[in-house]
Structures are given as C-alpha cells and as structure tokens.
Amino acid sequence: xxxxxxxxxxxxxxxxxxxxxxxxHAAVRDHxxxxxxxxxxxxxxxxxxATVWVTALLPEQxxxxxKALNELAVEFRRSLSRQMRLRRVPELRFKxxxxxxxxxxxxxxxxxDREVDGT
Length: 119
Fold this sequence. Notes:
Blueprint: H1 8-31, E1 36-43, E2 49-56, H2 62-71, H3 73-83, E3 91-96, H4 99-117
Parallel strand pairs: 2-3
Antiparallel strand pairs: 1-2
Family: Belongs to the RbfA family.
Subunit structure: Monomer. Binds 30S ribosomal subunits, but not 50S ribosomal subunits or 70S ribosomes.
InterPro entries: KH_dom-like_a/b, RbfA, RbfA_dom_sf, Ribosome-bd_factorA_CS
C-alpha cells in the first residue's frame, strides 16, 4: 500500500483555500467589502471546522472585514457544498492573518536601523 505524503485535512484545506479565494473575491466585489484575500485555511482533524485566515489590503479595516466575512460564512458554506465533493463541508470561521503586517513592521525597523548606521 503506498504511503500518503500528506493528510486528508491538508488536501481539504488546499481545496477550500482555492474555492474560498474565489468566493471571497466575489463577495468583496458584490458586497462592497474592503479588499482582502484568503492566505490560508486550517481544517480540524474531524473536518468539522475550518479556520480561514485572511489578509486585508488596509490593515485598519481588518476588524470590519473579518466581521463581514463571518456573517457571510453560511452563504459561503452553502456554495461550497454545491461545488465540492465532500460529505460534509466544515463550518467556516474567519480570522485576520497579521503575519504580513508584522513582516512589514520588521522590515521598516531594519531599514530604519540601516539608515541610522549609515550603510
């Protein structure tokens, strides 16, 4: 029997990320939400919950964006159930991914440090 290099949760998460990326993009356009994109999806082992990590173009609007996406989660889930071949689509929980913001802040501090040193 061949060994599996990755888990089912990883495959489901990758498929959800692709499908939700399209759905979130359409929701931003249709509902006038602040611009955002899906950065990652983490699925629990029992496939009951999926945490969807999103990044916003304007970080100060992240709270508003995540709140709106959580309100649309039921619609997203219904749409996913029609598109994907899963017995049960996980419930969606949207959270803001601040790793990009932290990376930009670190880069800014490093640039500032170089300017002080004169290099």
